[in-house]
């Protein structure tokens, strides 16, 4: 931020210069400006919000939200509360302490400060903002750090506030998130925008003036309120006790502000003085408590938080074991106040966790007017408030220093808490001690966050992984608590099922903006994003992401469905795994399984097993689908569901067509509903709507059609497992659209749209499943027609390159035809130089002989395991005689590294790998991680960050890990005889990519190493000069293994790197995986041909052992996605944890020169795919080995018994 780069003295000097500037020519204008400034000082901050919202609505040409009454679904109560509160003062009539004491007859009288609370609030103004002139503080740990640039930590600059403020500001004001000039979120649509507008007002843009930091007292108070809201938003909740909020966000902040003012070094004489100043006094706690309660009152009157609506809600929340609002002891105290008796037996205590005894006791009582004297019980909210007030007073007493504890009694603290509560919440019927974020503004804020985060994550992440925003915005408090307890009891010690999607999971979301402001991550492409100011309707039509509001609402409905489907898939996989594990442990397959006792925790809103539930589910897509066609879709859905139910209800329990769990039945129903909606969309969509999808294929993650297609693809798996092949074929044909019926005259356009909805890799897998399912669904006599169908499609695949070449190779093997038979070559094969090498063998016969990579075979017998260890990987014993640990076993990859290091592989002595020296290889089992690292570093500034014509839609926010079009593979659109290249990553940057790759091919190993070194050092320099202490994991890893990366780059050479990078730019989604398991390197002197000790020359990760430990996981360094796109991620995974014990302050790293002890050094690299005796190469791996040429090969281990059998056969 620009303001953070100036010292305080400079800032004050600029402010003085501003004040001393010459006034305007006309005195009238000068006077009016002064009057406006005076009015702004006297007005409350909330009144300013109302005025600004009124002006903003008028400037947009729409009716103000405050003037809407009957025409819209605006919550007028909340708007009126904001308007009323804007004109009122913070202070309210206060009662004397004597009146408070008289309210409770059981309390003793004691002396307290009878001064007005209003006076105390006014006296803490200076103390509240005194920390503004403090030195720079890193918000990660709250420690005072060395001042790099002057940066003031205020409530407004809080990372939590600015995270939500930036999201709200962009969603409301950026032209991308408008349709025909109108906002996606409006009061007229029934959206409560209180939270969005409140945070948007606090956003600090880098282009804003320095005055944004200079807040007056009212604005600082307002920012402090929203800071509390932001903290509650990022926590689990949903209910919070006032004592918890006070301890976390007010007391600690007060003590931290006192620590800011302390000098960095003190003398022994000053230590005692400072320790006495830092003692926590009762007066300091009083000020903090006033701040806390005042902010809660403000948020409540703004309509952003609420307390309990009714006594029943209070009893349900307090008595539930899921909310954990009270301890068990406190629950028993509430129960006794209600006249209930606590459970005595052990069985009753255990069952009390399953049953809400407080709510049960409340419902067993009659109303107050019919109560007898002996059953006279006060309402629960009164008892709860008294209990929590005492809890707050007790925690305040514990915070006091030892000397203050002696001066202050428990009764004095409790009386003061009651006094503050009664005066600040004087308008309420009772004291308020429990709060939660109000649902309607919270829902709108979550929807905005979900749109913002998913837009930046891109098409590489279109499933829930537990940390992204593919989750529901609505939550059902206390739902399925009993079912979840049953799950934990039954599956204890086996596995844990995922949390229901309706439960509050937003505290697990990985907010990129928050991580950046905390210094946990660097986003290299933040400078590529530019906010687009609002423009008139029609001018920014090409900039807007959604074609209309209906499309946006359909996308939201598809994201909700996606989260439900992800939950059902994981729940089903885990419940079946639990049954298999139980049978394996008990050794018996008899008895009821878990699937008979448990069901998925899905609310009635998504209950697709009932006819009414399916109809309600379809209503979510009204607008996206014609309302008149809903009845037709419902009939089609019911027809297909009835077919599934008929096969599922067969008397034969062993029938393969029976679904095993309710989750599988729900997945099948959701898949059918999505298919019918998508089919109707294809039939009725206009050409302009279809062209809107094709125009920007990198935005497929924001198209509801693409989300529906992915859900259909995921649901096909269950149908195949349960033998529903005919239905699976129908669904696959729908999402592939290679041979559709002529629908509305848009046949060619539909086929091209289908190439956008799914990635090239998923599309290739879908075609593969289509061919298999067709064979299963046909009779034996008609199965040959499948091969004919494949043969007819191969020329189309070659012409359009709509599927990866590896899938095309597999289909050529299936039909047993050489590629030359079709006389149509794939553009991908020609561009990458992939080898096919088909030839004719024998007389009068055509036999395909496909290219196979070089294979090194070796004998290795795996260690035999117990029968209970099925499913684990094979282990081997090391062949080295000098191993220190003889008990350690090796996996097959470690064994291969050992064999190549010792020179025992390859077996042929004349092999090029042994030239000019034998053995000496060291390496990693990394599966291409280092190649992806080099791709990211070398292409970041030169290619990935280059601006294109579609910059405004390729970068949708500042926190993207890659350009959105990186996951759009290169293919061709075919329309009749014409062919047009799609707008892929390679197509958008073709000239820059080819220019850089030519430069790379002509570079020497030393030059490549220097380019890499300079790139990393520039990034480190930029990070260390930042105002925030950066601890970005990827940058730290690059810095720690800088010389190692330079060695790998030099060993690969420019030609090989150019080949690999060209493949990644053509289709990053496909070629980012499938690389060989091992990356081996070695170095030798050019003259004497002796091996170089890498530990001595390079250092870092190299050791004397031939095996270098893996530094990164398989999914690391995958830009903008996970490698396992087709597999379900763990929905209930924990939030991403970043390392915080690393630093860039370790000094500079010496530049790598290809010389060792005065001799020139030659570096070699080798990529090896390792296979055991039962493994086979995939077609993608074969393509990678073909691309690597001599630098890639296969290492295959076979057992001695199989070796003897094969020798006997020969």
Automatic annotation (TrEMBL):
EC numbers on record: 3.1.4.1
Q: Compositionally biased, Basic and acidic residues: which spans?
A: 18-46
- Cofactor(s) for this protein? Mg(2+); Mn(2+)
| The protein's enzyme class | hydrolase
Task: Using the UniProt annotation, give all residue ranges assigned to the region (Disordered).
Answer: 1-46, 260-279
Please cite one Gene Ontology biological process associated with this protein.
Answer: interstrand cross-link repair
Q: GO CC terms for this protein?
A: nucleus
Coiled-coil annotated spans: none
What keywords are assigned to this protein? DNA damage, DNA repair, Hydrolase, Magnesium, Manganese, Metal-binding, Nuclease, Nucleus
Regions of compositional bias (Low complexity) in chain numbering: 261-277
Reactions accelerated catalytically: Hydrolytically removes 5'-nucleotides successively from the 3'-hydroxy termini of 3'-hydroxy-terminated oligonucleotides
GO MF terms held by the record: 5'-3' exonuclease activity; 5'-flap endonuclease activity; flap-structured DNA binding; metal ion binding; phosphodiesterase I activity
Q: Where is the composition biased (Basic residues)?
A: 8-17
Q: Where in the cell is it found?
A: Nucleus
Domain of life per record:
Eukaryota
Which family is this sequence assigned to? Belongs to the FAN1 family.
| Its job | Nuclease required for the repair of DNA interstrand cross-links (ICL). Acts as a 5'-3' exonuclease that anchors at a cut end of DNA and cleaves DNA successively at every third nucleotide, allowing to excise an ICL from one strand through flanking incisions.
Q: Which PANTHER family has this protein been placed in?
A: FANCONI-ASSOCIATED NUCLEASE 1
Record-given protein name: Fanconi-associated nuclease
- Give the source species: Chaetoceros tenuissimus
